[in-house]
Specification:
This protein is an alpha/beta fold. It is built from eight helices and eight strands. The protein is 44% helix and 13% strand. Helix 5 links the parallel strand 5 and strand 6.
């Protein structure tokens, strides 16, 4: 584990999705430790409140929860409206919430659930909060991606034509998260707001245990035995969100605080993905 990030985030507002457990909880706790006002975006209000109290107890800082179903466009819009009313300026947005599913499931909007949660939510939350991010002047967007990434087919993102695979659904979603980051960084060029993508490593989180398939208990056990602690997985998230070392650096992929080459650099494909996400995120 590297030396803990040192920065002064007093007076800054940081929003973290998927913040009730795992990487999101660890990131929210560390951002609060650095003095930030943290908004924890959570799906389960009771679990979120327990997590919030744990951070307040550990840091003494101001922490809020905001309930949102990131698979639902309606819920995301309501979350963004409420957040904008309470926080006209947002300094950091961490898109972290994600799922793994061993079977094909459908969101409330009729979209395949992994794609809806891991990709469309990243796109829509960022898009809706962009006015508040840009109002901050030098805001940062951090997208939690993965090295387990690939096989994205823009003509079949919901796996209607290809055979279902939990690994494939997750991997293509994480390729998409990287590509959306590069497309976002181009749109933010010259504004002072930056966009970064990162890989947290193989972390012992709850994601596999909620996969809903026969293999899920085994994946969850393997994760528990071999995964790194959530605090280590969150380290680069917090560093990208807070460190002066990366001030103004945008459109880059990071692992363990080191810039790494991303093989998914293809501007026409990134723009096609952006357009697809925009179309899929429109209200029905």
């Amino acid at each position: 584990m590297k030396e803990r990030v040192q920065a002064d985030l007093a007076g800054k507002t940081c929003v973290v999705t998927g913040a009730s457990a795992g990487i999101g909880l660890a990131a929210a706790r560390d951002l609060a430790r650095l003095g930030a006002r943290v908004v924890m975006a959570v799906r389960n209000p009771e679990k979120g409140e327990r997590a919030r109290r744990s951070i307040v107890g550990a840091t003494g800082r101001e922490v809020e929860t905001a309930v949102v179903d990131l698979a639902s466009r309606e819920s995301i819009h309501a979350f963004a409206r409420d957040l904008a009313a309470r926080h006209p300026r947002i300094d950091v947005l961490v898109n972290n919430a994600g799922i793994w599913s061993e079977r094909r499931r459908i969101s409330p909007d009729g979209v395949e659930l992994v794609w809806a949660t891991n990709v469309l939510a990243y796109f829509l939350v960022t898009d809706l909060l962009l006015p508040q991010l840009q109002a901050a002047g030098r805001a940062r967007v951090v997208n939690v991606a993965s090295q387990l990434a690939g096989d994205l087919d823009l003509s079949d993102v919901q796996l209607e034509r290809r055979p279902w695979s939990g690994r494939l659904a997750y991997a293509q979603s994480k390729q998409a998260d990287r590509m959306l980051t590069w497309a976002l960084a181009r749109r933010l060029a010259g504004t002072g707001t930056t966009a970064s993508a990162m890989h947290p490593g193989f972390v012992a989180t709850e994601i596999f245990g909620k996969g809903g398939g026969v293999a899920s208990p085994f994946l969850a056990l393997y994760s528990k035995l071999r995964g790194r602690p959530s605090e280590e997985g969150a380290d680069t998230v917090v560093w990208l969100a807070a460190s002066p070392e990366v001030e103004g650096r945008s459109g880059l992929f990071w692992i363990s605080r080191q810039e790494r080459r991303c093989r998914f650099r293809d501007e026409p494909a990134e723009e096609a993905l952006w357009a697809l996400c925009r179309d899929m995120s429109r209200p029905a």
